[in-house]
Amino acid sequence: MHTVLSEDDTLVVSYNVNSSSLDDVFADVSLYRARFLELEFAATEPTC
Question: How much is the pTM?
Answer without folding.
Answer: 0.56
